[in-house]
Amino acid sequence: MGVLRIGIAGLGTVGGGLLKLAYGQGPLASTVKVMGVSARTRGRTREVDISTIAWFDDPVALAKSPDIDVFVELMGGSEGSAKAAVEAALSAGKHVVTANKALLAEHGAALAALAAANGAEIRYEAAVAGGIPVIKALREGLAANHILAVSGVLNGTCNYILTEMDHTGRSFGEVLADAQRLGYAEADPTLDVSGADAGHKLAILSAIAFGGAPNFKALRLEGIQAIEPIDLESAKFLGRRVKLLAKAARVGDQVIQSVRPTLLAQDHPIARVNGPLNAVVIDADPVGRLSLVGAGAGAGPTASAVAGDLIDLSHEDSRPVFSGPGQANQLTAATGGLLANSKFYVRLRVPDRAGTIAKITDTLAKHLVSIESFLQKPPEDAARVPIVLTTQPMAEQDLLDALAELSRLDVLVEAPVLMPLED
């Protein structure tokens, strides 16, 4: 294709980083020519002078411009201008490069169909795990493999918070405030700490690994808001670490997808990933287990991924939007995400009165919950005694039924915290 004529919508952290690469000394500078840009504020001071580049107040107009071959969408958001502009570009037969995981997770199937109908490509390496080339690994490097599971730490904000809580013993709220002050968390951190951001990324990875299109609605999402220092301390005692684990796994003819806090064995490759880093582990046959670790956000890593997609397009590398190892044998996305056979960690708080422990053990036994370890912590006050237990492998539904009965028996003073254990 030669030199690509590109338009960039969104000149924030990633867009600014891409402009530096486009006007720098590296390979992207000889690959692309920036024909137009669009952003919220035109007059803002930027590292790269954009005064000689055509300005578009409306990103949709930029997307449809006859002067561009590729529309680079870096605005974010699953609706509004981002969606309208990407649809306009694809309808005009223009390739799209995007870092927008929410857009792809929620509208990926429709956008893929629109791209196919108009002979356009959608590239999105930057949408998952920043600078880690996991999309390329799944779509290309592992194309001959049977993918068994894809798991990872896909949100640097949550990983930073859990790492700091683990190292300092401080509460979620205290560490979150620090993360916001340091720029690791947004002023409204809900998308990150609820698990939704990691869920968008997992939906994309799952589509590539197991075939089909992203199915964000089928994911089970749990955030880290309920995690307390006592959980991290107990995890250490058990030889484990707590991580917000995003996982999609093949179970029969279905794929189970979830984002939830999980106790990982300390020698698990993801357990050793600290701070704002991301990590992805792929289990496949015949290659075995692969681990990829790197920066999941930021101008350099994310702009690098966008630039890589643009260079691929310049070589006329054509692929279906969500092709991958499982494409020929698509799996059904299971809803609910309950585990059929796993060990679990349970933290309870109960009143300090006689007979409470007996009620707990009797109820657990009634529901076939076999206890592996049981630890009663010192009372926090007369009304609250923390109890931590782990189970033998079991069906998650049986454990949930037991905890529901304990709640009806007025044994619990607050909602229990439940996390799976993974080796």
Structure explained in plain terms:
A hairpin with a 2-residue loop joins strand 11 and strand 12. By secondary structure, this protein is of the alpha/beta class. Helix 1 crosses helix 11, helix 3 packs parallel to helix 4 and helix 4 runs parallel beside helix 9. The strands form 2 sheets. Strands 7, 8, 9, 10, 11, 12, 13, 14, 15, 16 and 17 form an 11-stranded mixed β-sheet that branches. Strands 3-2-1-4-5-6 form a 6-stranded parallel β-sheet, with helices on both faces. Helix content is 34%, strand content 25%. The chain is elongated.
Low-confidence stretches: none
> Which sequence of SSEs, written as H and E, runs from N to C?
EHEEHEHEHEHEHHHHEHEEEEHEEHEEHE
CATH superfamily of the largest domain: Dihydrodipicolinate Reductase, domain 2
Category by helix and strand content: alpha/beta
Q: What do we call the CATH topology of the largest domain? A: Dihydrodipicolinate Reductase, domain 2
Number of domains: 3
Number of strands: 17
CATH class descriptor name of the largest domain = Alpha Beta
* Percent range of helical residues: 25-40%
Estimate the global geometry from the Cα principal axes. elongated
The CATH architecture term of the largest domain is 2-Layer Sandwich
Give the termini distance in whole angstroms: 47 Å
Q: In percent terms, what proportion of residues is strand?
A: 15-25%
Please give the radius of gyration in angstroms. 24 Å
Number of helices: 13
Average pLDDT across residues?
90
